[in-house]
């Protein structure tokens, strides 16, 4: 009987201990606002969950003692030890912001969250660092959905480019701490002026489509907003060096004083990046800096930031002809030693964030950017009239084409937030001036009375941009929330004088835009939600468009329908989009004298696509991160002159808009300090014109498939250094020979066929690097 009693007691004990109990509660911030997406982690079991939109979590745990840790980006983690022996409700956590949560206010007005029906991807500092070995930010974003990145020199350093949903950099709005970065006049984003900027980036967000209202030029394909380094609580230093193929190297020194007297911090970075380029002599020499002084307390953050640098880049932006590509894909047809772009740019920002009370906060941002530089070029056997008769006909000449610009910005945002409503309103004003001029710095036969550095053309320009917006998210019910975003934008652009071709340019154009956005989110369950949104964007022509005779603005209506699914093991985002354009300024395929794309109005056009973005944690060591974009991108009833006749080509493919883009990463992390990733990218066939190859097949870029291998290994040390980080990247490991970008042009040939008009064509291609590597070492102390 005693034995039976003993075994019965043992059996009951085993059942009791094997039983799972429910532990639940909520996670709040210091203002008692529920936090969605906070991680609730069981330390002993190495598993956890995330909070839902109401900040709630639920865990199933066997009887025992556990450490429950809560983490949320921008907040201090919290840890409680609990005894689990029965169902327990109401284990709530209150977590408090790190200083950098105030930093997030710098970009809050232009960023999307899971409460906003916008399609976006986030990238944090840790993810950026894995591949940050000297290549520019567009290359680091290459594996995000619908993204294609490229570079002139082929190695990812120097002049680099970003394409999202078929829209190039001139149509992607970029802000740094909420300050517009796109050049106000050309709309371009020149990453070459931000050498090693990834090393000073805290996090970034890429919104696809129109996105939320932002400052600066309108987003017609995407918007990218960057948040620079947050304040560090502790003093630190970093020395990073990387070396690799094609003479590529990066040397970076970073420091922070940490909090001095609990309020003040000074931090900074110096960088030197150099690459010979994959293309012969297409070198890049970048020197850059980042300096930040900050004051913070519980409710205030004040930052003064200066960053910038210089770049010298050898000419590679005219690519290679098909014959040159076949002969030697690394050749550079330019031979003049100093055929370089030489430019410097400095940015000065001031930000004041103030938390007035538990509901109200404000942000003021000021910016001044000064840039100046030139492109130097050798020309032979030139006409005197093209250079204002500063030379004799038939002379050789060396010229410099200058830009000298100033950019002022004032931003003000205010935020009202309660549990069921969030309202952000703001205004932005910018003033941009730029002098365009060309100098003759040498001539084989100068005209009488000509002096070196005499100007052969000049024009000045001014652009003002004022915008005001208000956006709100609010709950309609427990399951449905709504979003509305209204923006007015008022632009004036003036320029007068001569272009580099000595053609007159005289523009005084004003535009008034109203850009409404609205949408809904329906929460099916804690893990599932659907969203639907509509957004309108309007955008003015850039300087090149005005030079080409385009004076009308373009309009985009963007509809997005998406599904978000999130558990502790799986994160899945899918969305359908329809982007309907009126007067879209499409890339013709041709480029101008400095490699900038030439655009023309296409009438009506559209982009329709499906995007899928998945992150699946298979187990503690393995994860798969995949994305795919399938799309149809068309001009409607496109007309073009072919062989002297205006023809209706029907619905033709939009240029530089592949129908298929797929990215994938297999991630293996055997321990917390070692990770290796195998990255793959497929980009389908794309056209470099809008003619659907009705002239020839020279306008087609073949599909390509590349693979990279990336590893990071961190060694914790006890002496001298806090840790040593070894980072490696093997790009294009299977040695694919591919071209990801090019240009295409047509002209009427009357020389070989007198009396007739025959359309002939030409093309240029930018070969990208075959197998290459980068290896870096970072010392942290």
What would you say this structure looks like, in words?
This protein is 6% helix and 58% strand. The strands form nine sheets. The chain has a 22-stranded antiparallel β-barrel. A five-stranded mixed sheet has the order 8-13-14-11-12. The protein is built from seven helices and 45 strands. It has 781 residues and is mainly beta. The protein has two domains: 19-97, Immunoglobulin-like (Sandwich), CATH 2.60.40.1120; 227-780, TonB-dependent receptor, beta-barrel domain (Maltoporin, Chain A, Beta Barrel), CATH 2.40.170.20. The radius of gyration is 28 Å and the shape is globular.
Gyration radius, in Å:
28 Å
Task: Estimate what percentage of residues fall within beta strands.
Answer: over 45%
Provide the number of structural domains.
2
Structure summary, number of beta strands:
45
Q: Predict the CATH topology of the largest domain.
A: Maltoporin, Chain A
Give the full name of the CATH homologous superfamily of the largest domain: TonB-dependent receptor, beta-barrel domain
Helix percent reads under 10%
How would the global form be characterised? Answer: globular
Q: What number is the mean pLDDT?
A: 90
Q: Count the DSSP helices.
A: 7
By helix and strand content, what is the structural category?
mainly beta
State the CATH class of the largest domain. Mainly Beta
Short précis:
By secondary structure, this protein is mainly beta.
